[in-house]
Design goal:
It comes from Kitasatospora misakiensis. Helix content is 39%, strand content 22%. The protein is an alpha+beta fold.
Length: 379
């Protein structure tokens, strides 16, 4: 059955439209967004699609093609943080946040259909939030722009779901363009669309999903963010973004030992984003490999958000000829990206798979990342 026919079977009428918001891969700039820093993501072809029809009675009915037959029914006026369990919390969070922001929105019948892998570090939760945000913006004629909708989606995850994420995932899902990377200043949301022509350079960006599930609501992510905020306060800075690379050694001498590696990662990672931007503008994507690999070393050794599976994916990809590779996403599992010459894409994927099998891990899922468009109405 198609999602439209499933919607009609569940709700007894057709959807009035279909809206989509993509997952994302971050090329470089990890854990910098909640430090007011810089990021460089691309949107993926994989997306969350929302089949929706507005309701006049204040009832929100939610279903997913991944859970056949289940319909979660909620009273929009009664939504409260912590009051909606499981996957339904994410779409409900967007509706609650819009109402908290003063927008007069009510109910809807919603069917979600997604091919963004969950728990893979590809931002499936932000894609879901952004799909609901753009849908409600249209059906309730709110007139919000992409930045405003991304902030709504971020607040939904922060305050309703309870994950203290930065703004990168939501901005990537809302604002990316096909064929380009998004250079984003997360402090003021100023953005530039930088051409990212993989095919023209005979390159492929592999996404290696280690199938190690991560849950950013489990406290580790929040602890990292709190450590960064504590370090900024001790240094008398609004955020770690304000620490210049030249001042890093002296600043590290002033910090408790446990905060030193966090600060070192954030400052050097912001530098890697700016280095990657310069390389893209001058040479295209072919020279990004060493920057990606350096970013992984920093995540592994300083920020400590890697794991044995992601480390193995990186090392196996590099040994097989990848130009560069690193963990992408919040960490503690998820995916690795590997920049490879297109002719070597299959051999690199095969080498990583064989390394995982030899180590006794689940075989990774492999995708090819294509810079794609952000959130949009599809029908």
């Amino acid at each position: 059955m198609t999602p439209t026919s499933i919607f009609e079977e569940l709700y007894g009428h057709a959807p009035e439209g279909v809206w989509a918001a993509p997952g994302r891969v971050n090329l470089i700039g990890e854990h910098t967004d909640y430090n007011d820093g810089f990021v460089l993501p691309i949107a993926l072809p994989q997306a969350v699609r929302a089949y929706v029809r507005r309701r006049p009675d204040g009832v929100l009915r939610l279903s997913s093609t991944r859970i056949p037959g289940e319909v979660v029914e909620l009273d929009v006026a009664g939504l409260t943080p912590g009051g909606v369990p499981g996957w339904a919390a994410y779409p409900a969070a967007v509706v609650w946040t819009l109402r908290e922001a003063g927008h007069q929105v009510g109910g809807a019948d919603v069917l979600l259909d997604s091919d963004v892998p969950g728990g893979a570090g590809l931002s499936s939760s932000a894609a879901l939030e952004c799909a609901l945000a753009i849908t409600y913006n249209d059906i309730y004629e709110l007139g919000l722009d992409a930045n405003e909708l991304a902030l709504i989606a971020q607040r939904a995850e922060n305050e309703f779901v309870g994950v203290p994420c930065g703004i990168m995932d939501q901005m990537a899902s809302m604002a990316c363009r096909a064929g380009a990377a998004l250079h984003l200043d997360t402090r003021d949301l100023s953005a530039r669309h930088v051409p990212f022509d993989l095919a023209g350079s005979d390159l492929t960006l592999l996404v290696l999903d280690t199938r190690v599930q991560h849950d950013l609501a489990d406290g580790a992510y929040a602890a990292l963010r709190a450590g960064c905020e504590r370090a900024a306060a001790l240094l008398g800075l609004p955020a770690l973004r304000d620490l210049a690379a030249a001042d890093l050694p002296a600043a590290l001498d002033r910090l408790p030992a446990e905060l030193v590696p966090l600060v070192r990662h954030v400052v050097t990672e912001n530098g890697r984003v700016e280095q990657a931007l310069a390389e893209l503008e001058q040479h295209g994507p072919a020279t990004l490999g060493p920057i990606l690999t350096a970013g992984h070393a920093s995540l592994r050794d300083d920020y400590r958000t890697s794991c044995p599976e992601t480390d193995l994916a990186v090392s196996a990809a590099l040994a097989a000829g990848a130009l560069g590779a690193r963990m992408t996403g919040g960490g503690f599992g998820g995916s690795v990206i590997a920049l490879v010459r297109t002719a070597e894409a299959e051999p690199v994927a095969k080498a990583v798979t064989e390394a995982f099998v030899a180590a006794g891990y689940l075989e990774p899922h492999v995708y090819r990342a294509v810079p794609s468009a952000g959130a949009r109405r599809e029908s």
